[in-house]
Amino acid sequence: MTKIEDYAAIVGQGTIDELFTLARSLEGKTVQNINSTAVGGGVAEILSQMIPLLKQLGVEARWDVIKGNEKFYSVTKKFHNALHGVPVKIDDGELEYFIEMNRRNAAEMEFADIVYVHDPQPIVLIEKRKEIGRNWLWRCHIDFSKPDAFVWKFLEQYVNQYDAAVFSAPSFARRLSIPQVLISPSIDPLSDKNRELDEATINAVFERFGIDRTRPIVTQISRFDYLKDPLGVIRAYKIAKKRVDVQLVLAGGGATDDPEGPIIMEQVRQEADKDKDIFVLFLPPSSDIEINALQRGSTIVLQKSLKEGFGLTVSEALWKGRPTIAGAVGGIPLQIAHRYSGILTHSIEGTAHWIKQLVNEPEYANKLGVHGREHIRNNFLITRHIKDYLLLFVSLFHKDDLVYL
């Protein structure tokens, strides 16, 4: 297990000392994180990394996952799409079932001093506050810039019962009766997914998947979700392929609370249409080394999202010094300064253009990678994230200090 002191070599001992000082302010308090899945997706990954480190700092932290079934997750996937602005149909029966499943979970849970609820799936747990009190936070990890009005109105009644709402980017802020806090997600530079790898390990992964490292490789790592636009990635590759000799890797997995993943993956396979230079890889949750190697060994990394809560795969690629092209949506523009630390794109054609440019201009591509790594070091590592969380938790016991946005 990584020790909190190990990060001093990256961020400095002063940062680690500061975290211990903040953690002492929470002595005797318990912190409970609640979400909807233990594996798959950025939320589960962040929590799996952060909870052990919080415990090392002396914080009594734990992580609980609500229970659901296929019907429940079908409704919450509709919420997810609707909050990204996609028109959906949700009837009263589905809303009632969603509420009932939350109430069943609430009846079985024991709640801590600070209850940190992640995303819409467990949002109705806040009803328990009337009975038990405690301090409640709601953390939204998704792109909230243009939510469906009906779904947002339904969720808003619960959001306004929390002590504060936490968003990943300024554009996600809403008109609420409670304080709002901006906390961007982060990556763990010492995790298997992000730590340094030797060339032998990288080569072994590419050889296993039959990918030729002597030719340019363009890679997108993400869940098979239509909002990640894997079909658009293939179309951009096909345009670029007419001008430059490239291979395409689409690699990722699914999440237990996302029933659409297998459908999207099948559409991706059909779009690839037996092109020998397209590699569609379904990776299980334990594939951190493989993901790390694929990113490090790629010529260019893509994240052509149509909507994005934050897009930690961008931070991962930039941390590895890889030139990165990503959709200018959600929290991605916080990570990429266009043409300085990466490339922001708005279309399939634009993505294809920049693939060609970066393949043909390796010196410029390398400079993007150098600048991108430094930007992530300064802003999006897990030590900064933990500091933000500790400050937020401490502020709950000094609520008059919270600022309304």
Description:
By secondary structure, the protein is an alpha/beta fold. The chain folds into two domains: 4-186 and 381-401, 3-Layer(aba) Sandwich (Rossmann fold), CATH 3.40.50; 199-379, 3-Layer(aba) Sandwich (Rossmann fold), CATH 3.40.50. It is 44% helix and 14% strand. It is built from 16 helices and twelve strands.
Labels describing this entry:
single chain, 405 residues, alpha/beta, Rossmann fold, 2 domains, 6-stranded parallel β-sheet, 44% helix, globular
Radius of gyration (CA) equals 21 Å
Shape: globular
CATH class of the largest domain: Alpha Beta
What is the tally of helical segments?
16
Specify the structural class. Answer: alpha/beta
| Full CATH superfamily name of the largest domain | Glycogen Phosphorylase B
CATH architectural grouping of the largest domain: 3-Layer(aba) Sandwich
End-to-end separation in angstroms reads 38 Å
Helix/strand layout:
Layout: H1 8-11, H2 13-24, E1 30-35, H3 42-56, E2 60-65, H4 70-83, H5 92-108, E3 114-118, H6 129-132, E4 135-139, H7 149-159, E5 164-167, E6 180-182, H8 199-209, E7 217-221, H9 230-241, E8 247-252, H10 261-272, E9 278-282, H11 288-296, E10 300-303, H12 312-319, E11 324-327, H13 332-335, E12 343-345, H14 348-360, H15 362-379, H16 382-395
Parallel strand pairs: 1-2, 1-3, 3-4, 4-5, 5-6, 7-8, 7-10, 8-9, 10-11, 11-12
Helix pairs in contact: 2-16, 8-11, 9-10, 9-14, 12-15
Short recap of the structure:
The chain is built from 16 helices and twelve strands. By secondary structure, it is an alpha/beta fold.
